[in-house]
């Protein structure tokens, strides 16, 4: 099966192959056990679009105004668990539809509040879920995997450091196709981040080389973001990466 991974790690020699489980499982959610009538797993919450719900063993995140009658074109789903250290996030994700075929898949990685407040407590400040509310004012890394029009389009892959949304890396090294399920993975080990798609490395960045005044983002929450797109998520897994001996 053709799979795609967003993979981030410290050293090329120490990087596991795409799709490999690297350590203890911290979270695994396949949405099959989410009770009927429950929109999200316990502890998770959403901002922006209200068309968000676990259905038939998958998580549907609909921020495509043309697709459902939903008026908000922005959506963020927060996994309500704080993760720390070297971790790997993986998920199956499919673009079901998108206004203008933007095919927008974004992951907020190790996000936290500069003021030290719990993100759940400040959710009311972000009811629109517009991107600037996160990239301008929060700590964390943002990974973009999105298209610029066309059912099959080059995937614009970006890595940004927040607050401020400083661009660390950008490439058009892959494609993102409506109706195709991708296996995405994001991994941080030490100071190096890598991105893989379909098992091919698309980008790599070492944050220790940055001139940014932002601190290293060592702990925080993971958020699933989209804009003008309906996404279907499944088989979400977060694992701890073992410390090198």
Give a verbal description of the structure.
The protein has 245 residues and is mostly beta strands. The protein has a domain at 24-81 and 96-174 and 215-240. Helix content is 3%, strand content 50%. The protein has 2 helices and 15 strands. It has helices at residues 65-68, 132-135, and strands spanning 25-29, 45-48, 52-55, 58-62, 74-84, 87-98, 105-112, 139-146, 152-162, 166-177, 181-189, 192-197, 200-206, 219-227, 229-240. Strands 1, 3, 4, 6, 11, 12, 13 and 15 form an 8-stranded antiparallel β-sheet that branches. It has a 7-stranded antiparallel β-sheet with strand order 2-5-14-7-8-9-10, with no helix packed on it. It is globular, with a radius of gyration of 17 Å. The protein starts with 24 loop residues before the first strand and ends in a 5-residue tail after the last strand. The relative contact order is 0.29.
Key descriptive features of the protein:
8-stranded antiparallel β-sheet; disordered N terminus; mainly beta; 2 helices; 50% strand; 7-stranded antiparallel β-sheet; globular
What is the structure about, briefly put?
The protein has 245 residues and is mainly beta. It contains 2 helices and 15 strands.
